[in-house]
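## tool: complex_structure
## caller: assistant
## args:
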Amino acid sequence: MIPLSWVLALAGLLFGIGLLGALLSTNAVRMLICIELMLNAVNINLVAFSRYQGQAHGEIVALFAMAIGAAEAAVGLAIFVAVARNSKVIDIDKINLLKW
Amino acid sequence: MEYRLLLPELVLAVGILAIILVDLWTAVERKRWTAFGLAALTFGAYLIAVTSLVGVKEVAFAGHLLVDDWSTFFKLFFGITGLLMLLLSFEYVKERALPPAEFLALLIGAYLGISILLGSENLLTLYIGLELISLTSYLLAAFLRQDPLSTEAGLKYFLLGSIASAALLCGISFLYGVTGSLSLIVLAQHLAVAQGMVVTGTILLLSGLLFKLAAVPFQVWAPDALQGAPTPITAFFSVGAKVAVLAFFGRFLALFAGEFAQEINYYFLLIAIASMTIGNLAALRQTNLKRLMAYSSIAHVGYLLVAFVLGTPAAYAALQVYVAVYAAANLGIFAIILWAESQGRGLEIQGFQGLGRVQPLFGLALGVFVFSLVGIPPTGGFMGKLLLFMASVEEAHYLLAVIMVLNGVLSVAYYYRMLRSAFFEEGEWNLQEGDGHALGAVVLVAVVVILFTGVWPGWLQGLTSLPM
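## result:
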């Protein structure tokens, strides 16, 4: 069996890539993809823990997380469409009406 | 009969479906009345269902749902704010020609999430409740689809909020990995030892929760989201998810023990002080009312977090008083802001100019709310601050008490500008014959709650006992 630490390293790496991408990119759609990457990294985490503990709780959470992640993507894309209709761009550097 | 314990949540879920379905068969001109009527029925039934659970202390559904006095108190609180939210948005929905059924379905969806979060005894239920609040909040923030400010608020809230949710879920996965269980009670046995994965998981989980609270350093989204969102929704954001997360903290932070608890406490102290100071300082330079109230709510979250730093029964009791009067004052101020907005006065502080002359009752009520937020007797805000202050002196946190008082003084500066604008400056008002009755009712309820609590805060404390 593959050691748990390897799987966790993979999940950590994916989470890191997602987080960096979400923080550094300026395109909202790209940010959404990075956030989905973070969620999937967590799912790997959950399933791995679940497998190594020999019980199903973690896998159930992963299923819920996937469903909620899909809902989140739907909500996000709906908001992006509304923004794009108003300002014709979806680049968060150019969407800056609100500031102090 | 476990379903009896789930009754409040079931009522809200049925309400959402009923509002959407009935809307399909309703003529356009009756849509608003039907939807609001059904929503009022839903919240009424919710309150009755919650009242039937007063005094019950049970865990149901394999440890996923917990009903105790602490959660019942907050469910009652949210049932009442839900009704006030309906009054706040009744005219607004008409003025902006918003689809009432969708608006209310999302709003009640957020309340369903809050209710689930309050009863969660399990990390999975916590996550589901929190996400239900978040997803509906993103949509509500962007609900004025034609308004660039509103969609921008929704976009920013969504992007930052999703990152926070992912971090929170990651924290849950680590805590699950260590304990092999999602139950908070099992978790508590592992939280005394600060070992690698427990610390990482706890930090990630708490960051996600603190983000929803808009506590410093996770506050950046709040001013933007609250300024851009439709005004009734701004009022909801300033009390809704924040108070729910605070209530959950009351349960969650009690789990920590030993050295790790002291460490967590220390960080909460820093976050509390930073939140009140930065919130108040940033509010000083705001001219937009909604943005000002956003920063003020960040500062108030700082005061409320003090209760968890202390962690004593007196502090929790103070928290309940503080939350009730804070919510009353906030909803009241937003009712007045909404009224000024509906009279075409805009959302800048200048919009209040001459309010004390053209509408003396609203002016007077504004005075009560501002006094309560600053903490001047005989308002409830004074009682809330006094109880917190006494609780921190009892625990020998003298420096904390001094910082709280100094922050109170600091906050006078920006709250006073509202009053100066309303009473000492002249403004042009063309009063339109509109029915501000709904908003007036909110203001009345808020004033009564604040003054009554100021005289006798015990009525709130008598309702409930402490978590755990």
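## assistant note: DSSP finds 19 helices and two strands in chain B. The two ends of chain B are 23 Å apart (CA to CA). Handing back to user.
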